[in-house]
Amino acid sequence: MNQSMPITKDFTENCAGEGQTATCSNVFRVEKIEGNCCTFRVLAENEDTTSVLPYVATNVFFTMDCSCLCGIRCLSDTYVDCLC
Fold first, then answer.
1. Would you say 79 and 55 are in contact if contact means Cβ atoms under 8 Å apart?
2. Domain residues for 28?
3. d(Cα 78, Cα 27) in Å, to the nearest integer?
4. pTM of the entire structure?
5. 19 — pLDDT class (breaks 50, 70, 90)
6. What span, in angstroms and rounded, lies between the C-alpha atoms of 27 and 40?
Protein backbone atom coordinates (compact mmCIF):
# COMPACT_ATOMS: atom_id res chain seq x y z
CA MET A 1 0.00 0.00 0.00
CA ASN A 2 1.34 3.45 -0.92
CA GLN A 3 0.82 6.18 1.65
CA SER A 4 -0.11 9.62 0.32
CA MET A 5 -0.02 12.97 2.06
CA PRO A 6 -1.61 16.32 1.12
CA ILE A 7 0.68 18.73 -0.73
CA THR A 8 -0.94 21.67 1.08
CA LYS A 9 -1.79 22.28 4.71
CA ASP A 10 -5.52 22.10 3.87
CA PHE A 11 -6.75 19.50 6.35
CA THR A 12 -9.89 18.78 4.29
CA GLU A 13 -7.91 16.85 1.66
CA ASN A 14 -8.62 13.12 1.42
CA CYS A 15 -5.44 11.20 0.64
CA ALA A 16 -6.56 7.69 1.56
CA GLY A 17 -8.43 5.19 -0.56
CA GLU A 18 -11.30 6.17 -2.81
CA GLY A 19 -11.89 9.84 -3.39
CA GLN A 20 -8.18 10.65 -3.26
CA THR A 21 -7.56 14.05 -4.79
CA ALA A 22 -4.87 15.23 -7.19
CA THR A 23 -3.44 17.39 -4.41
CA CYS A 24 -1.81 14.39 -2.73
CA SER A 25 1.64 12.90 -3.18
CA ASN A 26 3.43 9.74 -2.14
CA VAL A 27 6.90 11.16 -2.84
CA PHE A 28 8.83 12.44 0.17
CA ARG A 29 12.30 13.78 0.95
CA VAL A 30 14.08 13.02 4.23
CA GLU A 31 14.85 16.38 5.83
CA LYS A 32 16.16 15.38 9.24
CA ILE A 33 16.93 12.25 11.25
CA GLU A 34 16.91 12.43 15.04
CA GLY A 35 17.32 9.20 16.95
CA ASN A 36 14.60 6.85 15.73
CA CYS A 37 12.51 9.56 14.03
CA CYS A 38 12.65 11.08 10.54
CA THR A 39 11.14 14.33 9.36
CA PHE A 40 9.95 14.16 5.75
CA ARG A 41 9.04 16.92 3.27
CA VAL A 42 6.18 16.15 0.87
CA LEU A 43 7.18 16.66 -2.80
CA ALA A 44 4.64 17.47 -5.50
CA GLU A 45 4.71 16.62 -9.18
CA ASN A 46 5.98 19.56 -11.20
CA GLU A 47 3.07 20.95 -13.22
CA ASP A 48 5.43 22.92 -15.49
CA THR A 49 5.49 20.67 -18.56
CA THR A 50 8.48 22.56 -20.00
CA SER A 51 10.66 21.78 -16.96
CA VAL A 52 13.03 18.81 -16.76
CA LEU A 53 12.51 18.72 -12.97
CA PRO A 54 9.99 16.04 -12.00
CA TYR A 55 9.17 17.36 -8.48
CA VAL A 56 8.84 20.61 -6.58
CA ALA A 57 9.18 21.15 -2.85
CA THR A 58 6.13 21.87 -0.70
CA ASN A 59 5.98 23.40 2.77
CA VAL A 60 4.28 20.29 4.17
CA PHE A 61 6.23 18.11 6.62
CA PHE A 62 5.52 15.07 8.77
CA THR A 63 7.56 13.15 11.32
CA MET A 64 7.57 9.37 11.57
CA ASP A 65 8.93 6.92 14.13
CA CYS A 66 11.19 4.73 11.99
CA SER A 67 10.42 1.66 14.12
CA CYS A 68 6.93 1.82 12.51
CA LEU A 69 8.35 1.97 8.97
CA CYS A 70 7.64 -1.18 6.95
CA GLY A 71 9.41 -0.31 3.73
CA ILE A 72 10.78 2.51 1.63
CA ARG A 73 11.61 2.76 -2.07
CA CYS A 74 14.27 5.27 -3.05
CA LEU A 75 14.14 7.24 -6.29
CA SER A 76 17.10 7.71 -8.57
CA ASP A 77 19.06 10.87 -7.78
CA THR A 78 16.74 13.74 -8.63
CA TYR A 79 17.16 17.51 -8.39
CA VAL A 80 14.25 19.23 -6.63
CA ASP A 81 13.83 22.95 -7.25
CA CYS A 82 13.80 25.26 -4.19
CA LEU A 83 15.85 22.94 -1.96
CA CYS A 84 19.39 23.61 -0.86
1. no
2. 5-68
3. 12
4. 0.73
5. low
6. 10
